[in-house]
Design brief:
The chain has 133 residues and is mainly alpha-helical. The chain has two domains: 75 residues; 46 residues, no CATH class. It has five helices and two strands. α2 packs across α3. The longest helix is centred in the last third of the chain and has 16 residues.
Length: 133
C-alpha cells in the first residue's frame, strides 16, 4: 500500500522563526503551566480553555507549578497541551511516548484516544508500535 501526501503550504519564514523562538523562551522561563497554555492560546482565534487542556493531559496538580520544576514526562504532556491549544482538526505527534515508562506510555495513549473522541484526526509517528501496550 502506498500513500501520497501533497504539501499544500509549507510554513517558513519570520513568523515560524518567531514562534519557535517564543516556544524555546517560554519553556525555559519561570512561567507556570497555566500561564504557558494561556500565552500560547492567545495566538489562536479558536483556542481551547487552559483548564480543559490541563485536565486532558493530566496536569491538574501542576497547574501553578513553574515549568522548570516539571519532570520530563510532565513537560512532554505540557508540550502536547501547547500543541493542541489552537484546537486543530489534524494533529501530528512525533514519537509522543519516547522516554516514557510503561505507565506513562499508557497514559499518553489514553490522551490520544481522548483527542480522537473529540473528533480530531491524530497521526502518530512511533517507532515500534508495540510500545502502545
Amino acid at each position: 500500500m502506498s500513500v501520497e501526501i501533497e504539501i499544500v503550504h509549507k510554513f517558513d519564514g519570520p513568523a515560524t522563526a518567531l514562534l519557535e523562538s517564543l516556544a524555546t523562551a517560554l519553556l525555559t522561563r519561570s512561567t507556570t503551566v497555566k500561564e504557558a497554555i494561556d500565552l500560547y492560546g492567545s495566538m489562536y482565534p479558536n483556542r481551547r480553555r487552559s483548564g480543559e487542556l490541563i485536565e486532558l493531559v493530566g496536569l491538574q496538580e501542576k497547574t501553578d507549578a513553574r515549568i522548570k520544576t516539571l519532570s520530563g514526562g510532565q513537560r512532554r504532556r505540557l508540550e502536547l497541551a501547547l500543541g493542541i491549544v489552537g484546537d486543530p482538526e489534524l494533529i501530528f505527534l512525533d514519537e509522543p511516548t519516547t522516554g516514557f515508562d510503561p505507565s506513562a506510555r499508557r497514559q499518553a495513549w489514553s490522551i490520544v484516544e481522548n483527542l480522537t473522541s473529540l473528533g480530531k484526526t491524530v497521526l502518530s509517528l512511533e517507532p515500534g508500535m508495540r510500545q502502545r501496550s
